[in-house]
Model the fold of this input.
Amino acid sequence: MLLSREMGVGSLKPPRLILHNFLTSEECKELEFIHKSSSTVGYRPNVFSTTLSHLIATNSSTFLIPFVPIRERLKEKVEHFFGCEYELCVEFTGLISWCRGASIGWHSDDNRPYLKQRHFTAVCYLNSYGKDFKGGLFHFQDGEPATLVPMAGDVAIYTADSCNIHAVDEIIEGERLTLTLWFSRDSAHDEDAKLISLLSKNMPELKLPMLASSNMYWFSLDPASHQQLGFDICLARMHVLGFDICSCQAEGLFSDSTELLMEPLQLVRGNELFKQEFVNILHALQAVQFHHWKASDLPDAQSEAEPGDVEHVVRLSKSQQEVVRSLKSRFLKDHQLVEMIFSCATCSRNQKNFDWERFSAAIAGLEDHTCKLHKELLMSLPYWRTHGIIYSVPPACS
Ligand SMILES: O=C(O)CCC(=O)C(=O)O
Ligand SMILES: [Fe+2]
Done:
């Protein structure tokens, strides 16, 4: 059954393999959570990316763990399909999302002198055409299949050379998300070696996330205008889910206003201020995205608890309302652009009677989740260092 869906490398067939349901829906959602909590401005207009080295640099090394078995399974598939057992290394792993306006014309993935080490590509689709975004169909210039309709869980594997010239249509609406890997035969380009070295320098204690330089999170259609127009990605991602922020600091203390987002802050919905403080905007964003990912799995709030429960929230004071407004006007300058880039069908931002009890449970869930991943990372890292590769260490080894 599965075999009939795979395209073989027969003598005339192009060297490519399409697999359906390679990733589970839960794997796709976990990677989406990581991307929406951590992404920075990408390498092309209207593109956002999350690389593994960025996760390490922002104290979020624990989020490497969900990638490990997936990378391994993909590498095995690629090696097996192209008959190069145990020869390949992973050259790059990244979550990449494309928003309205992004597209790429005909190209091969090794089409620059500095990309010649890229021998094979694997693109895993983490969300679906029609449901999560419109546009964004993938086309091969020659051979079959001519067009791929991205569906969550599917993967396209192909050689990075001119046998597989391809293009992606412009995204018309929504955010199209992929996990993209390149593989190389040249071990000088092994991503694992660099990541293990970064992890070793930056001993992964269980820490709260920390922002990389703040301009990595500033999105503008005209990069030359920098802070004049555009928006902060973290705040924009919270905003489309119905959240604002209130700073715990006096604004005047910061000459560079973006530093404010690196300082403690609180979450706001409408006129309600969530009492708990977050250490910075990335920390708050993780909580918001984890809640978005898991809310439907969390137990219902106790029936007698009023939504907007006094335990968790207070009403915003007049001066706090002013702070919220001022932060919005500073960090979401181009409001229309925020809507155009990030608003989505599943955002449900206008939900009345927001369930803060459930939100609070999500924060506890996030802590448990991070703790579990962190234990796994600490257990695995010595093995990764010994062998020089990142792999799934069976728990029995610990
Ligand atoms: O996302 C895709 O379907 C392919 C993207 C692509 O061609 C690239 O990043 O080189
Ligand atoms: Fe490509």
In short: Residues 214-373 form one domain. The chain has two domains: 2-204, 214-373.
